[in-house]
Design a protein that fits this description.
Order of helices and strands: EEHEEHHHE
Helix content: 10-25%
CATH topology: Alpha-Beta Plaits
Shape: globular
Bound molecules: iron/sulfur cluster
Low-confidence stretches: none
């Protein structure tokens, strides 16, 4: 399952995208995030509980500000670079 954490507003499009099918629960992205914006959550996926990365609730509504120092428009943020599964990407399109 692909989950988009973020929003579109009048200034553009801002999402951290996590593919829970690719995520193996290694926690490397959570360890590398300078803002502590990522956490591990347990979800019911494909008939079993699986622990995967997610953007924490408190950061979802302010993701543009949380992530801006990582320069997400380049898609080479600490979370993206940490993930050897290719489970994290940034969709970042400021107008
Ligand atoms: S872009 Fe930066 S601040 Fe945002 S989730 Fe990834 S590592 Fe954390
Ligand atoms: S680094 Fe990738 S595989 Fe590891 S927990 Fe984060 S999203 Fe999942």
């Amino acid at each position: 399952m692909i989950t988009h954490y973020g929003y579109i507003d009048g200034s553009g499009e801002y999402f951290i995208v996590i593919d829970s099918d690719k995520c193996n629960g290694c926690r490397k992205c959570t360890e590398k995030c300078p803002q502590n914006a990522l956490e591990m959550v347990t979800e019911f996926i494909d008939l079993e509980d699986k622990t995967v990365a997610a953007v924490s609730e408190t950061h979802r509504k302010k993701i543009r500000y949380t992530c801006q120092e990582c320069e997400p428009e380049r898609n080479k943020t600490p979370c993206v670079l940490a993930c050897q599964q290719g489970a994290v990407k940034c969709v970042w399109k400021p107008l």
